[in-house]
Each structure stands twice: as structure tokens, then as C-alpha cells.
Specification:
The complex is a heterodimer. Chain A has helices at residues 10-29, 48-58, 69-79, 93-101, 111-116, 173-185, 188-200, 210-219, 229-236, 241-249, 278-288, 291-301, 314-318, 330-334, 336-345; strands at residues 35-40, 61-66, 87-90, 105-106, 128-140, 165-166, 224-228, 251-253, 264-272, 304-305. Chain A is of the alpha/beta class. In chain A, strands 1, 2, 3, 4, 5, 6, 7, 8, 9 and 10 form a 10-stranded mixed sheet that branches. The chains are: A alpha/beta, B mainly alpha. Chain B: Residues 39-245, 315-521 form the ABC transmembrane type-1 domain.
């Protein structure tokens, strides 16, 4: 592109390029038999390879647009019955709940899916299904944290952790879900009190992403961080020496193992109401929870399979088995707004 | 003309329209807790970035346009380079270098044996950090516009001032600067609008600005309506500033006098030359070379990853979209700007103000403003066809590249319009009058007199929109057709997964493609100068 650009006739080139792009767009949106259109909040790199495999096996062409979950739901809502999308993929349960509320999904019943996916990880009315599990865990500096004193998320509100905790902003969906999960299982005053104490213990104003929190623990800026486990996995497997070294200095701690279990969220999928080929869309979702696909999530992104009996990758095995919170993940969506308000009140930036 | 403005203003009006909808209880919560924070932080951010871009942009423009020092020709185009750097990308690179776990602080700790808390180091992820990052990438707006204005200032005026006994600083502050006021106002207001619309930088730095609030309200609270209302208030605020600024220089005129004379540059030597080179280098290094090197280092850490097959397609898509959108914006800006010149009046001024609002609003919000009317149109046509002819037309506009380009126009028209208007403002109306009295019809006047005189401004307008679209992310993300990606989309996906090293390559490519028009513009300006 850079070298072939002819300065003398840019107009012609542009026209040709434009025509080509328009043709591609028109063709891909056209009505070739057996095409599935996906709106995905899961990023391309974390879903496209699986979709390609599905295409290879079935001959169904799969088209993809990625974007933020809420924006995609808005696109679905405004496009209405003419929306070209067949499947909505999201990276958290809250968005699936919201898509359900917006009425953009249609129920799809499948024995394969009900058998493979635990009841708390799919909607009771068959509107959406969980595809992979994401756990929010504690990352500790082993030399500075006594694990007798830290077992539950709840412990982090104790004044002994003052100035020792790193976490990203409350705008992050997984932080919101964590708090929503608490609201679902204890009264709101209790959750608010925990939030107030927790926020008082921050080592620094919330900032950066999950990897930054892990790096801050490794560098000694704080002793405990709250992150999604796959970020630690990605750092351990990183090509960047600094990232890998930082990750090797910290340890993963599964919280709440003696009570409700570690907080989990899911990535999931539902068939859109506008879809005229729900059977084909269902086949895709069934493919995504097949055993080999499930293994792929663990190997590629260190997420946990949604179905039992799928062997974990070596890295996940090293972190050991854990008890996951059995809460119905729809609750995370139902209580999301309440969680955000509670976090605002606690001044969690 | 007003009809064109109305179509372009449609998405903005959709969002403003949300003000007439119901107000949810979420408002009460916002006012009680976080709204004050959002407002205060955004105002501080605006003040900081305003001062920063004014200082950097005007001093860089003065040095390269009016002074002669070693390397001036190089700096005059090199100082545009930071513009190609998306704000969130520069934020990532500086964080990588300067945060607690980064190489700079680690080196300090290793050298002096310090631990956490033993020393003070400026926190990059803070309001101040955000001001620095945004100023570094946004000053080129001021620089470009003001430099053109300085260059078009007649030497005669400046020399008159000098010969009347004014010192050089006095000439600068009392003559050159006031004469460049429309360009300064245009440049700084573009930078400020971009600042208000920024989401990537402030959210990464954990600064709760107004945009953070809009997205938090939408994504976190699930209140799209309330989020749209917040965005509407943001737009009204910007509109007010826009009108105030216009009012304040309503009675002032800033015409270029006489024939075009290239300014005679003031030769700097000795310590002055050293200071000039030092200042220009400092801006260039911190705004471009340092972050670009960091990106290059990330790419080189694993060159294997650099060979992504779809890469050329991504670059092609980005280039194509940017070129088309820049051309559309330029034509419309010329049309609207010229229209206002022919028929000045409250209606067209207001209309031009309204179509400029899009620039101050986060792209995602504009995208929603485009989605709603387009999908409504599509569905109405479809329903009608189904009822009358029994066929379905599906979605005609939604999900096409056309919708995307339209959204870019809504979002970036302000950039080209401000540039064209500030250029037109410097052309004396008596020129129009003499040309008209010689029998030129308006279109031929535009083609034969104004466009040649405006050449610098037009190219600037083209370049600014091109680079802006190249970097644009949120609108592209939500409105693009299936299987259509751009460099910015790829960079964002990788960066949002915190794979900064992987995001470095597309980010670097954005910067490199952004260089093309910069070089084109520079060559054109150079030949322009040589010709005159």
C-alpha cells in the first residue's frame, strides 16, 4: 500500500479500492445460502479461530462484527426485525441479561446445551448459554502476605490491609459483577460497609488494567490485587521477559473456598430474535460448547471450560481446582446497576 | 444549504432530543455522588489542555513560520507528526515507560537502592498525566492552523510595527498574535472538543471525566437515555462556548492585506538558535520520537508476530475510509463555509455551529445518533415494501460503509469547517466585491479566487480529517459492516486485552500512514512558498 501508492493518479486508485470494498461488503451481507452473522463482544482473536473451524466443518460461512456489548445490543435493538445478526456473543453475563431485557434474543432449546452447561450458567428460559468461565481471584506477594489472614474477598475490608490493595477502576465490568454477586448473597448494608472499608485500603487510586495490578504487586507497590485469572496466565506465557518475571513473583489465591466460592463470570451467546435460521445458530452454539472447542478456550485464553469433564490445560492445573460461586449468573446482570451505585457511594473511582 | 446542515445535524439532534424524554431516578444518584467529579475533572482537563496546546502550538508555529534557525525546514513538518499518534496509544507508551513497575522507576530504584515510598515520582496515570498526553498529541491542530495564519500575515504589517518602534516581543503579542486569533481560536477549540470526547486516555488513567460518566451511566447503570442526556448537556456546553467565542470577535475583522508576500523570517543565532532548536526538539521527541520508539521496541521484541496476513487489508481499509471521509468533509465544509460567507446571518452561523457539535461527543454516542435514524428509515421503507409489494428490502443504510462515512462526517466536519472558515475569514470581502463587479459568478469566484488563496487551509482541512479518521475507533467499531476491520480497531482489540506489545504494530502503522498526507502537505506548502 505504502509503496504502490501512485501520487499522480490517487483518484483512480481510490475509486477502485472503494468499489472493491463496497463489493465485498455487499457480497458478505448478501443472501448466500448458509451464512451466519455474528455480533461479538468477544474480541476477534478470541473467537475467530473457533468460527473458522466451524466453517471448515460445516461449510457455513460465518461473518463477524466485534464491538462493546452494549453498543452491539443497541445496534440490534435499533435494527429490529431486519437485523442481519443471528448470534450475539458477549464477554459477561450482565450483557446477556441486558440483551434479554431488551427483547433481542429468541429462545432456543437444545438437549445438548442443557446437558453440557450447568443450570446457573445459562438462562432458565433458554435465551442464552454460557460458553466459558472467568474467575476473579486474588493475586498476592507471597513474602508479604500471610495467607492465614486472607481467605475471602470480605477480609480485604479489614484495616490491616490499609494501603496494600491494588485494583482497577469500578468502571470495569468484572469489578461490577463481583459487587453484584455480593449484593445477591448478602444485604446491601453489609455490601456497602465492605465496599467502604475496601476502598479505604487502596494503595493508589484505581488505574490501568488487570495486568498493571499484577505488575504493581510484583514491584512492591501493593501486596494484594484483584484480577481475572487469565491475565496472570497470559503474563506467565508472555514473550516479554519483564511481564513473565513479574508474573512469576506473585501467587494466585482462590478466595472464599470455605464458603460460597470464588466469584465467576461467563462469556456466552444467544440467538437473536431477528434470526431467520435459529437452527443453524443453535448448531454454532452447540459447536462452541463441544469438548474440543471448550479445550481451546483454556489453551488460548486460560479461561475455564463451562462444561465438566474437559481436561484443563497444564497452566490451569497448576493453579489447582477451585470452588466456584454457584450463584445464578443472571443475578450479576440484574444487580449490576445497583452495584455501580454502591461503588459510586463508596467513592471507588 | 440549511437542508444539508439539517441532515448532518440529525444524529446530534437525536441526542439533543433525549433531553425532552423522561428523566430517570439515575439522575438523582449521579448528582448525589459522581456528577460533580465528572464536571470538575473535565473542566480542569480542558483548562490544562487548552493552555498546553496554546503554548506548544503557537510557539512551534511562530518559530517555524517567522524565524530562521538550523533545522527549521525539518521541524516545520516534523512537528506535525504527533498528530498521527492516537491519544490512548501515547498514554499506553508513556505508562509503559514511567509507571512504578516501568523501566525508568525500576532503574532509579536499582541505582539508589530505594523501595516503594522512598522517593517522589510524578504519577503518570493522573489528571496531570492526561493533560500532558492530550496536549502532546493535540497541539498540532493549533500549530497547523496558526502557522498558516502566520505565513499568510503580510510582512508589511509586521514590519510596520517594527518600524514604529515596537520591539519584537511587542510585535508578536500586539500584532501577530491578535491577527492570528481566528486560527488560534479554531485550533484550540478543536483540541478542546477532542479532549472532551476522549474516552481512551481518561479511562486508562482512571480520571473520572465527563465521558467516563457517559459510558459508566450507559454500560454500568444500563441507562442509555440518561447517558444520551449527559452527552446532550456536553454538546450544549460546547455550543455555548462556540457561540460565545464567535460573539466575542463579531466586530473584529482579520483580513489579509494586499498581495501575498512571503514573510521575511527573523534569523536566530547564538543562544537563541540553540533555544529554538532545543524547544522544537523537545516537543518532537516527547510527542513523537519517544512514544514511536517505544512502539517500535515492542514490535521488535517479537518480529514474528509482525507478519500478520490480514495486515495489508487493514491498512488498505483504514487508508480508504480516511481518504473518502476527508474528501467528503472538505467538500461539505467548503459548501457550508462559503454559504455562510455569501449569506451571512444568524441562521447559517447557528447551523454551522450545530453541525460542529459532533466533534465534542464521544464517537460511540454519535454512532448511536446515526443508528437510530438510519435504522428507523430502513425499517419504515422495509415495512412499506412488505405491505404494498410483499417484498422485504432489509436494511438499506444500516451496516454499510456509507453509514460509517456519514458518521465520520458528523463527527469530523467541525475540523474541516473550522479550518476552512478561519481561512475564508482572512480573505477581504472587497476581493469578492471587485471580482463580482468584474462579472464573476459566485462559483467561478470560489474556483478562481478563493480556492487558490485558500490552498493552505484546504490542504490542512484534508489532512486533519484524514488523520482523525485513521485514528478513529468507537464509531468504526459499532457501525462497520461484517468482516471489515481497520488498523485502529485491531490496535484497540489488542490493547483492550492488555496486549500492548501486540497492539504496537497496528498503532505504528497508523502513525506511518498518517505520515503520507503530512509529507504531501509539506511538499505542497514548500512548493507554494517557492512559487511566491
Amino acid at each position: 500500500m505504502l509503496t504502490t501508492h501512485s501520487p499522480r493518479r490517487p483518484g483512480t486508485r481510490l475509486t477502485v479500492l472503494f468499489a472493491a470494498a463496497v463489493t465485498t461488503a455487499v457480497l458478505s451481507a448478501g443472501t448466500v445460502a448458509e451464512t451466519l452473522n455474528i455480533y461479538s463482544a468477544r474480541q476477534e482473536a478470541l473467537i475467530k479461530p473457533l468460527l473458522d473451524r466451524f466453517s471448515d466443518e460445516t461449510g457455513v460461512e460465518v461473518n463477524l462484527v466485534t464491538g462493546s456489548g452494549d453498543a452491539l445490543i443497541t445496534r440490534l435493538t435499533t435494527e429490529g426485525r431486519n437485523s442481519p445478526a443471528d448470534v450475539l456473543l458477549t464477554s459477561d453475563a450482565g450483557r446477556l441479561y441486558r440483551a434479554r431485557q431488551a427483547g433481542v434474543l429468541q429462545p432456543v432449546s437444545s438437549d445438548v446445551l442443557t446437558a453440557a452447561i450447568p443450570a446457573n450458567l445459562r438462562s432458565p428460559d433458554n435465551l442464552w448459554y454460557g460458553l466459558s468461565v472467568r474467575a476473579r481471584v486474588l493475586i498476592i506477594a507471597p513474602d508479604r502476605v500471610n495467607t492465614d489472614e486472607l481467605q475471602d474477598y470480605e477480609d480485604l475490608a479489614d484495616p490491616q490491609w490499609k494501603g496494600r490493595i491494588c485494583v482497577r477502576s469500578s468502571g470495569n465490568i468484572y469489578n461490577q459483577s463481583l459487587v453484584a454477586g455480593m449484593l445477591a448473597q448478602q444485604d446491601s448494608a453489609q455490601t456497602q460497609a465492605w465496599l467502604d472499608g475496601f476502598v479505604r485500603n487502596f494503595a493508589r487510586p484505581p488505574q490501568g488494567g488487570d495486568r498493571d495490578q499484577i505488575k504493581a504487586v510484583a514491584a512492591g507497590q501493593c501486596d494484594v490485587a484483584l484480577v481475572n485469572s487469565y491475565y496472570l496466565g497470559a503474563m506467565l506465557q508472555s514473550d516479554n521477559d519483564e511481564e513473565r518475571q513479574a508474573a512469576e513473583q506473585v501467587e494466585l489465591l482462590w478466595p472464599n473456598q470455605s464458603n460460597r466460592g470464588a466469584h465467576i463470570n461467563i462469556s456466552g451467546a444467544g440467538v437473536t430474535r431477528a434470526s431467520e435460521q435459529p437452527d443453524l445458530a443453535r448448531q454454532l452454539i452447540e459447536f462452541l460448547v463441544r469438548e474440543d472447542s471448550q479445550r481451546w478456550y483454556a489453551e488460548t485464553n486460560n479461561e475455564y471450560p463451562v462444561r465438566d469433564g474437559v481436561p484443563h490445560s497444564r497452566l490451569l492445573q497448576a493453579w489447582g481446582d477451585f470452588k466456584a460461586d454457584a450463584l445464578d449468573v443472571s443475578e450479576l446482570g440484574r444487580l449490576n446497576a445497583q452495584a455501580v451505585m454502591a461503588m459510586d457511594r463508596a467513592n471507588w473511582k | 444549504m440549511l437542508a444539508t446542515s439539517l441532515v448532518i445535524a440529525l444524529p446530534v439532534l437525536v441526542i439533543i432530543g433525549s433531553l425532552f424524554g423522561g428523566y430517570s431516578p439515575a439522575w438523582e444518584h449521579l448528582i448525589d455522588t459522581v456528577l460533580g467529579d465528572y464536571v470538575v475533572n473535565s473542566v480542569l482537563l480542558m483548562l490544562g489542555v487548552g493552555a498546553g496546546t496554546l503554548l506548544l502550538g503557537v510557539s512551534a508555529a511562530w518559530l517555524t513560520a517567522m524565524c530562521e534557525f538550523p533545522g527549521r525546514r525539518f521541524f516545520s513538518w516534523a512537528l506535525l507528526l504527533p498528530m498521527a499518534m492516537p491519544a490512548y496509544i501515547i498514554a499506553y507508551t508513556y505508562t509503559g515507560m514511567l509507571d512504578y513497575a516501568g523501566p525508568v522507576q525500576s532503574l532509579l530504584r536499582d541505582t539508589f537502592g530505594w523501595g516503594y515510598g522512598d522517593y517522589w515520582f510524578p504519577e503518570i496515570r493522573s489528571l496531570g498525566g492526561a493533560v500532558c498526553m492530550l496536549s502532546l498529541v493535540l497541539y498540532p491542530y493549533t500549530y497547523l492552523l496558526v502557522r498558516v495564519a502566520f505565513q499568510e500575515q503580510s510582512t508589511a504589517v509586521l514590519e510596520a510595527s517594527r518600524s514604529l518602534g515596537k520591539t519584537l516581543p511587542a510585535t508578536f503579542f500586539r500584532v501577530a498574535l491578535p491577527l492570528a486569533r481566528p486560527a488560534i481560536a479554531a485550533g484550540v477549540s478543536l483540541a478542546l472538543m477532542e479532549t472532551l470526547a476522549d474516552y481512551g486516555t481518561v479511562s486508562y488513567f482512571g480520571v473520572s471525566a465527563f465521558t467516563t460518566g457517559i459510558f459508566r451511566t450507559w454500560y454500568g447503570l444500563g441507562e442509555l437515555q440518561t447517558a444520551a442526556q449527559l452527552a446532550a448537556f456536553l454538546m450544549l456546553f460546547v455550543f455555548m462556548l462556540f457561540i460565545l467565542e464567535r460573539q466575542s470577535r463579531r466586530r473584529l475583522r482579520f483580513y489579509r492585506t494586499g498581495t501575498r508576500q512571503p514573510p521575511r523570517r527573523i534569523a536566530l543565532c547564538g543562544w537563541r538558535a540553540v533555544t529554538a532548536v532545543g524547544l522544537a526538539s523537545a516537543i518532537l521527541v516527547s510527542g513523537f520520537l519517544l512514544p514511536a520508539s517505544q512502539l517500535a521496541i515492542w514490535v521488535l521484541q517479537d518480529p514474528a508476530r509482525a507478519a500478520q496476513p490480514a495486515f495489508l487489508a487493514l491498512a488498505g481499509n483504514s487508508f480508504l475510509l480516511a481518504a473518502i471521509a476527508a474528501a467528503c468533509c472538505l467538500l461539505l465544509a467548503l459548501f457550508l463555509g462559503y454559504g455562510k460567507r455569501l449569506f451571512p446571518g444568524f441562521a447559517q452561523t447557528t447551523a454551522n455551529g450545530v453541525v460542529s457539535m459532533g466533534y465534542a461527543v464521544p464517537g460511540t454516542v454519535i454512532a448511536v445518533g446515526v443508528l437510530i435514524p438510519f435504522a428507523w428509515f430502513d425499517n419504515v421503507v422495509d415495512s412499506w415494501l412488505r405491505e404494498t409489494l410483499g417484498v422485504s428490502s432489509g436494511l438499506l443504510l444500516s451496516g454499510t460503509l456509507g453509514a460509517l462515512v456519514f458518521a465520520y462526517v458528523v463527527r469530523f466536519l467541525s475540523v474541516s469547517l473550522q479550518t476552512v472558515e478561519s481561512g475564508l475569514a482572512r480573505i477581504r470581502p472587497s476581493i469578492d466585491e471587485s471580482a463580482r463587479s468584474l462579472g464573476y459568478p459566485p462559483l467561478s469566484l470560489l474556483r478562481r479566487i478563493h480556492i487558490p488563496m485558500l490552498r493552505g487551509s484546504l490542504l490542512t482541512a484534508l489532512l486533519l480529517v484524514f488523520v482523525d479518521v485513521l485514528k478513529e475507533l468507537p464509531t468504526t467499531l459499532i457501525l462497520r459492516p461484517f468482516n471489515f476491520n481497520t488498523l485502529a480497531v485491531r490496535a484497540h482489540e489488542l490493547a483492550s486485552d492488555e496486549r500492548l506489545a501486540d497492539a504496537a504494530l497496528p498503532a505504528l502503522a497508523i502513525v506511518l500512514i498518517g505520515l503520507l498526507p503530512v509529507i504531501l502537505l509539506t511538499r505542497n506548502m514548500a512548493s507554494d512558498n517557492a512559487a511566491s
